Amino acid sequence: MIPDPPSHLPPPRPDSRETRPPKSKSRIAYYGWRAKMWVEGTLVLHMLEPWEKLLLLFIFLVLSSLFITGLIRFLPHHIAVMQRRTIYYIWGNTSSSVAVDDSDLSRAVNDFTTRSEL
């Protein structure tokens, strides 16, 4: 039988305490633990050090915020352009009451950005 390490030494590696289910009987804690294990097992995050997990999380948050910002700022204009092209390809002209004017769209985007900056 292997004796327990002395208490003044750090815990042995790999430390499997994080993979054990929570001791509380709360269903929320249990399902949170299951979700964490599923994400770490799927993305192989369990083999990373804690600082590497934080770095990966930071990179993911930055990239997703850039993606969402791009969707909010540029997707409305792109949808208007695609709408005009679709109208042109279907009916053969660009003078339609359905088409969105660029000046109206830019005015709406400027109003939205000035409101969000306040």
From TrEMBL:
Q: Name one Pfam family in it.
A: SPT_ssu-like
Record keywords: Endoplasmic reticulum, Membrane, Transmembrane, Transmembrane helix
- The coiled-coil segments of this chain are none
Compositional bias annotation for Pro residues: 1-13
Membrane topology summary = Multi-pass membrane protein
Localization, UniProt? Endoplasmic reticulum membrane
Q: Which InterPro entries does this one have?
A: Ser_palmitoyltrfase_ssu-like
**Could you name the Gene Ontology cellular component terms for this entry?**
endoplasmic reticulum membrane
Transmembrane helix listed as a keyword: yes
- Residue span of region Disordered: 1-23
Bilayer-crossing residues are 54-75
For this entry, the protein name equals Uncharacterized protein
